[in-house]
Amino acid sequence: NTTPIAGVLDEQTKALDPNGVYFYYARQHVWHTAPSAYSRYITNGGGGYGDPKTREPERVRQDVRDGYVSLTAARETYGVAINGDPGRDPEGLTIDEIETANLRR
């Protein structure tokens, strides 16, 4: 027996469903659970699996464009040099291929 806490889920199967019912955490002030109960959740992030310097530079550029990663983090964590201003022109961001290759050595 499961109790959905949050997400857009199929009401019967409790599986993720973009056309399902929206369950939200704050619909109850207190959540009571039985001893040894499990809580399982699925998030939209990968949790940092793998070496960040092996992430495809284009995907890092998209993460910067979408606001998930800063220009500084792209350079220092992922070894990807990105030119442009994500705040003013997110679609105009470009990857500096030569600098990225140097950062990843």
Please outline what is shown here.
With 105 residues, the chain is an alpha+beta fold.
Structural notes for this entry:
The structure is a single chain. By secondary structure, the chain is of the alpha+beta class. It contains 3 helices and 4 strands; from the N terminus they run E-E-H-H-E-E-H. The strands form 2 sheets. Strands 1-2 form a two-stranded antiparallel ribbon. The protein has a two-stranded antiparallel ribbon with strand order 3-4. The termini are far apart.
Order of helices and strands: EEHHEEH
**Overall pLDDT level:** 88
How many separate helices? 3
Spatial strand sequence of the major β-sheet: 1-2
What is the overall shape?
elongated
Largest sheet: 2 strands, antiparallel
Beta-strand segment tally: 4
Strand content: 5-15%
Distance between the termini: 52 Å
Percent of residues in helices comes to 10-25%
Secondary structure category: alpha+beta
Write down the Rg.
20 Å
* Uncertain residue segments: none
